[in-house]
Design a protein that fits this description.
The chain has three domains: 48 residues, no CATH class; 44 residues, no CATH class; 121 residues. It has a two-stranded antiparallel sheet. Strands 3-4 form a two-stranded antiparallel sheet. By secondary structure, the protein is mostly helical. The chain is built from twelve helices and four strands. It starts with 6 loop residues before the first helix and ends with a helix. The longest helix has 29 residues. Helix 2 packs across helix 3 and helix 8 packs antiparallel against helix 9.
C-alpha cells in the first residue's frame, strides 16, 4: 500500500525543500489524493504575498565583500609586489578586485550583451589551501551551475503542478511562475552556450518550449488544451530531463574544482 505524504512534507516540497523531493514528485504523479491535497496547498500558498526585498544601499558592495572575504582563498603576492606594497594595501587591492569580479558577473547577467564580442581578459588565478588553482572563469562557471540547478528546481515545481492540475481550471498562477522562469531561462541558456555546456543548454531549450506553451495558453484552460500540454511534456520526457540535470548539477556543485593546466604540467 502506498504511503501518503503529510501536509508539512508537501508544503516543504512546494518551497523546494525537504529530503524526499524526488519521491514526492513521483508520488504526486501516481496518487490523485495527494495530488489534490498538494494543489490545495499550492493554491493557498500562492495567495501569500512575499515581502518586498529592501532596496540596496550605497554600501551593498562592501557588505557583500565583508560576508564573502573570509571564504576566499588567500593568495601570496609576487615577490616584487611584496617589496613595493605593504600587506594592508595588498588586502585592500584584493578586496577591490574581488568586488569587481562579482560586479562583472552580475552585470553580464543583467545587461544585454553587445553586438560585438570583446576579447576576453586574462583569467586571474588563485590557489586554495589544498593547492587547487581556481580562475575567475571557474568561479563564474560554478555560480552558473548553482543558479541553473535552482532554476531547474523551480521549473520542476511548475511542470509538476501542470501535470497534476484539474482537467478544467484556472492555471493563471502557474502561468505567472512560468513567465518569470522564462526570462531567466533564456539568460541561463545563453550563458551555458558560451560556457560550452551544451547538455545544459539543450535541457533549457526544451524547458523554454514548454514554459512558452504554458504562458500563452488560456488561463481558464480546457481539458483538451491541458491534455495537449501534458502530452508534449511527456513526449519530451521533460520532467525526467529536468530532474536528472538538476541532480547532476548538484553533484558538480559540491565537487572540488579541477586542477588547472599549470598544475598538471608542474
Amino acid at each position: 500500500m502506498s504511503t501518503h505524504f503529510t501536509e508539512d512534507e508537501l508544503t516543504l516540497y512546494y518551497y523546494g525543500e525537504g529530503r524526499r523531493r524526488g519521491r514526492i514528485a513521483r508520488h504526486l504523479d501516481e496518487c490523485t489524493a495527494c495530488a489534490a491535497v498538494y494543489r490545495e496547498i499550492a493554491g493557498t500558498l500562492a495567495l501569500v504575498t512575499p515581502p518586498e526585498p529592501p532596496e540596496r544601499g550605497d554600501q551593498y558592495g562592501l557588505e557583500v565583500w565583508q560576508r564573502i572575504r573570509h571564504q576566499l582563498p588567500e593568495q601570496e603576492a609576487p615577490g616584487w609586489l611584496a617589496l613595493v606594497m605593504p600587506r594592508t594595501d595588498r588586502l585592500v587591492l584584493a578586496g577591490a578586485l574581488a568586488t569587481l569580479v562579482l560586479v562583472a558577473f552580475v552585470a553580464g547577467r543583467i545587461w544585454p550583451r553587445a553586438g560585438s564580442v570583446a576579447s576576453p581578459p586574462a583569467a586571474s588565478v588563485t590557489a586554495d589551501a589544498s593547492g587547487t588553482a581556481t580562475t575567475g572563469n571557474d568561479v563564474r562557471h560554478r555560480i552558473l551551475i548553482t543558479a541553473v540547478a535552482d532554476h531547474l528546481d523551480r521549473s520542476e515545481r511548475v511542470l509538476t503542478d501542470i501535470m497534476n492540475a484539474p482537467s478544467r481550471g484556472d492555471i493563471s498562477t502557474e502561468q505567472r511562475w512560468a513567465d518569470d522562469l522564462l526570462t531567466t531561462s533564456r539568460l541561463y541558456r545563453q550563458d551555458a552556450v558560451e560556457a560550452g555546456e551544451s547538455s545544459i543548454a539543450g535541457v533549457l531549450d526544451d524547458l523554454e518550449r514548454s514554459l512558452l506553451e504554458i504562458v500563452h495558453s488560456p488561463s481558464p484552460i480546457s481539458a483538451a488544451d491541458l491534455d495537449q500540454i501534458r502530452r508534449r511534456i511527456d513526449a519530451a520526457a521533460l520532467l525526467f530531463k529536468v530532474r536528472v540535470m538538476s541532480d547532476e548539477l548538484r553533484q558538480r556543485e559540491s565537487a572540488p574544482a579541477p586542477p588547472t593546466a599549470t598544475q598538471k604540467t608542474s
